[in-house]
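Review form for a predicted model. The reviewer records the input and the model, then writes brief findings.
Reviewer: anonymous (R2)
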Amino acid sequence: MSTSFFSTDQIPYKGPNNTDPLAFSHYNPSEVIMGKTMAEHLRFAVAYWHNFAWPGGDPFGGQTFDRPWFPDRISDPMQGAKLKADVAFDMFTTLGAPYFCFHDADVRPEGANFAENTRNLEEITDVFAGKMEQTGVKLLWGTANLFSHRRFMSGASTNPDPDVFAFSAATIKTCMDATHRLSGENYVLWGGREGYETLLNTDLKREMDQMGRMLNMVVEYKHKIGFKGMIMVEPKPQEPSKHQYDFDVATVYGFLQKYGLEGEVTMNLEQGHAILAGHSFEHEIALAQALGVFGSIDMNRNDYQSGWDTDQFPNNVPEVALAYYHILRGGGFTSGGTNFDAKLRRQSLDADDLLMAHIGGMDICARGFKAAAAMIEDATLENAVQQRYAGWNDTQARDMLAGKMDLTSIEQHVRSNDINPEPRSGRQEYLENLVNRFV
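Model under review:
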C-alpha cells in the first residue's frame, strides 16, 4: 500500500554499530527481554496529530510543512483526509509500529455542525477499519479534540455555556463509539482548556463539578457499550490555560476520589507535562503506580531552556531508563503503551524526517528499557530500598501502623527501651552511581 511519500517502506534493525539513519540501532522488536519481546514490552504508538495534522507553525510564524493532504494543496477535505490516512498507515507499517493514537479533529475535516463532524468521523472510521485489517496495526487509544476550535476557548466540560458542555459530551460519545468500533485498547481524556485564565470570572467549584459529571458520564457510557479498555485522564499543569484542573497525578487522583471514580479511571502520563508540573517523569510514574492509577505514557520531552511544552522526541537515555524502571517495577504495561506525542522541529521539512525522528525515539526507548530491565534483574537498587525500610518489618513497627498502639503506648515503648535513634545514610550518590553503571 506504499504511497511513495517516504523513500523506504521498511526500517530494518542493523545493530549498535549501525550508521544508516533509516535503520534501528537498538530497537530490535523480536529481542526477548524478561520473557517478552521488546515489541510486546514497549507497545509503541505513533501519534496522528503532530505527524499528519500539524502544519509546522508556532506563536510567531505559520505553516512551514508542505504536505499533499493539506487544505492548500487539495480542494476536497474528505479526499485529503483519506490521502492522509494512506500516508499514515504507510508510515506505521514502515516503522513496524504496532499501534497509533488519534483525536477526532486529526483524522476528519471540520464540518459545518455536529452532524457533519460525526458523518466525517464515521466515514474515516470505516477507512481505518479497512486499513487496520489489512496491516494489522491496532489502536492504542482514541480521544476527542475539545480545545482547538474557538467554541472551546473557555473549556469543554468546564465551559460556562451549557451548550458547549452538551456539544462536548456529544463529541466524546462519537469518539468513544469510533474507538470502540476500532477495538481501541483505551480511551483518553486530555482537558486541553479545562482550567482558567483568571479567577475574576471563574467559579472553581462549579467548573470542577461539571468536569466530574462529564467524566462520570464517560464511565457510564463505557459500561453501557461494553468497552473493555481503560478510561484514562492525561494530567497537565498549564499551557494553554494559566492553571488546569488536571495539574498532575496527585491532583487528578484527588479529583477521582472526590467524584467517586477510583477504580474506573487511570492516567496517561506525559514526560513533558511532568516537567511543567515541577516533577520528574519517574516521580509521576512511581506515584501513579503507588496509587494504582498508572495506565500509559506519552514519551516526549521539553526543551529545558524554553520552559514550555515543546513536544520533542526523547533523547536522554538516563531519564528514559528511570521511567521504564518504575513501569517495569509496577509490572509493565497492560493495555497502555509508549505513544510518541512528539513533533518535528519547524525546519525538519522532509518526509523522511518523520521516519528518522521516530527511529531515534524508538532507539532511545529501547536503550532505556534495556537498562531498566538490567536494573530490575540485578536487584541491587531494589534491595537497597528494601534494606532502608527493613526496620518496619519488626512487630513493634507493624503494630504502630496497624493501629495497635496509640501515642501513649508508643511513648511508653520509647521510654522503656531507651530508644535514641541515630540517622543512617541514604547513600544517594552511591545509588546514582549505581544507575549510571547501567545507562
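Findings: The chain has a mean pLDDT of 96.
Further findings: The radius of gyration is 24 Å.
Recommendation: see findings above.
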